[in-house]
Amino acid sequence: MNYSTLKKSVALSLVALTGVASLAVAQDAPATSSAVKVFGGRGQYRTWSIGVHGGVLMPVVAIGGTNDFNKWDANLGYGLNIRKQLGHSFGLELNGTRGKLSGNNEGITNPAVRDFETQLQYAVDLRGVVNVGSIDFLRRENAVGFFVTAGAGMLAYAPKITTGTGQVIDWKGNAVGPADDRHDAKDYVKGFYIPVGAGVKFKVSERVNFNLGYTMNFVDADNLDGVYAKGTTKDKFSYGYAGLEFSLGSSAKPSLEWTNPLATMYDELKDPTLRQEVEALKNRVSAVEKSVEDLKKDTDGDGVADQFDKCPGTPAGTAVDGSGCPLPKATTDTVSSNVTGFERIGFDFNSSVLKTESYPTLDKLSSVLRENGGKVTVNGYASSEGTAAYNMKLSKDRANSVKTYLVNSGVNASQVATKGYGEANPIASNDTEEGRIQNRRVETARN
């Protein structure tokens, strides 16, 4: 194939590929990424793609090096690739290429080998593809990206050489080469190679990419061109190509390789649902803060919060009970006659909450302590249900409930001492409910 024929073949191939891409653009609906989450996993993206490519094969590489022929030809190559995208920046690709390599020693006097032509039956490799950058990375939609590739694979080839005397030797029909490298005359020569390349891709549509790339292939053999250089060199060839890649999967999902993680994070943070949840949480916090402030508010300064003050607007200095109402006027003798100095307060099962029926007794005790001074000891008890450790805690809570009531009514905290005795010192039998009711108590004794 001469160079003009090669150009025509490549041009026709690219025209056909571009036509397929145009059709895909016309039929493909843009995918939505509104449901994509930063940590949602690969399942929310399209990750598989298949591609076709065509270009030129050459028995040289861009980085130079020694060659067995001083002239080389550019021949048509073509192939397929299948890729699995594992992340925004990395994927694994299975790639296959076919074509022909050729060159000659034109201008050399009496060359041992005048020219060669090698049929490349296949070159199949598994390579990693790394997206190293995007021109539009800072925009919401990436459209142009750069990539590098590297991997390893196997190839099968059959060289055919023309010697300086005009003899044609076709490796595919003859067992030629050194004794330790001869092959079956019916088979192609098999070999290992390493592909290393780079390229740029363009997002044509949500489904189609247009790729331009160049790959250098380093063969672990010195017979790719049918000529041995005494084992001192390894042969190599390169492939420059253009191709189309088609993304597979549901059109409702975006393609992983083109997803901008910054835009995804921005969308997730700006999700209306999330904002509504945050606003609702802020409103709930504000309501709680207001309730706490209302609990603290004591407009008349009587020591009872407004929410529990049944007698708001009490004059300053007025002695009040636990509900914020003024205590009845009474002389010391009257109070003393009504307060024996030893009072018993009852409680419900498994509770340290004061009963309302206890308020009058505690209000009288509070009045005596505030007007006459002195101290009181509050002893808490429990019935025998439950563990001893739990009953000890419950008895202390009951004693502290009485102290809290007295302090809230104006008694100095230093005037009230508390102690819990648990289920000790029962005043009735714990074998009956009537007896257990009597044992759930607090006893106050003035000192």
- SS element count, helices: 7
Outline type:
rod-shaped
Radius of gyration: 47 Å
Tell me, rounded to a whole number, the average pLDDT: 81
> What is the N-to-C succession of helices and strands?
HEEEEEEEEEEHHHEHEHEHE
| Biggest β-sheet strands, sense, barrel | 8 strands, antiparallel, barrel
Counting copies of identical and different chains, the oligomeric state is: single chain
The unreliable regions are 1-33, 329-339
The total count of strands amounts to 14
How are the strands ordered across the major sheet?
Answer: 1-3-4-5-6-8-9-10
* Strand-residue proportion: 25-35%
Tell me the distance between the termini.
Answer: 120 Å
Helix content: 10-25%
SS content category: alpha+beta
What does the model show?
The chain is of the alpha+beta class and 447 residues long. The protein has seven helices and 14 strands. The strands form two sheets. The protein has an eight-stranded antiparallel barrel with strand order 1-3-4-5-6-8-9-10. Strand 4 and strand 5 form a beta hairpin. Helix 4 packs across helix 5 (359-372) and helix 5 crosses helix 6. The termini are far apart.
